[in-house]
Amino acid sequence: MEQTACYGKCPIYTFTLDGSGAAFLDARRFMDNLGTFEAKINLDTLCVTFAGAKDCKWETYEEEYLSGYSDMPSTILRYSPNQKDIFTVKFEGEMAPVELLLITEKLKSIKEDAKWVLTSEPILD
After folding, report:
1. Which one of 2, 47, 84, 107 is most buried, counting C-beta atoms within 10 A?
2. In 28-97, where does DSSP find H-type helix?
3. How far is Cα 48 from Cα 25, in angstroms, rounded to an integer?
4. Strand partners, 88
5. Euclidean distance between CA atoms 53 and 47, whole angstroms
6. Hey, which bits of 1-123 come out as E strands?
7. Do the beta carbons of residue 60 and residue 42 sit within 8 Å?
8. Any residues with CB less than 8 A from the CB of 99 and at least 6 apart, and which?
9. Lowest pLDDT segment from 15-29, 31-45, 71-85, 106-120
10. How do residues 82-119 score in pLDDT, each as one tens digit?
11. What is the pLDDT, as a whole number, of residue 69?
12. pTM
């Protein structure tokens, strides 16, 4: 999951979760802590999250659900059920199908609850 910039102070980050429970956070701007971080996610949480993602009909979704306003932050979800297939959906606000909104909220919750360990300091622009 990636959160993109807006004209204000929207958090900008990339959050990655893999099948082993390894989580990675690249916190770039407008967050409490900046830099790259790692965490280990509880297997029960991981299974529930991945089951929800697996149940989504990824191949039926549009690639983008955007309003056309340039100052809105976007969420980008990437899902890879195997090494060769990657589904990507970009949306603003609540414009995505409800299943994707639920996955997004679950991922945000996991990100907030994780015990992050700093792996590298932020690179300042």
Report:
1. 107
2. 43-55
3. 20
4. 78
5. 10
6. 2-3, 12-17, 22-29, 35-40, 64-65, 74-79, 87-92, 117-120
7. no
8. 52, 55, 56, 57
9. 71-85
10. 878 899 999 999 999 999 999 999 999 999 999 999 99
11. 79
12. 0.91
User: Helix count (H) and strand count (E) of the chain?
Assistant: 2, 8
Q: Is the pLDDT of residue 125 over 70?
A: no
Tokens 């979704």 belong to residue:
61
Under 8 Å CB-to-CB from 13, ≥6 apart: which residues? 2, 3, 25, 26, 27, 28, 31
Q: Cα–Cα–Cα angle for 57, 59, 65, nearest 5°?
A: 85
**Residue 87, helix vs strand vs coil:** strand
Question: Domains in the chain and their CATH numbers?
Answer: 2-120 (3.30.1560)
Sequence letter at residue 85? D
Report the alpha-carbon distance of residue 46 to residue 65 in Å, rounded: 26
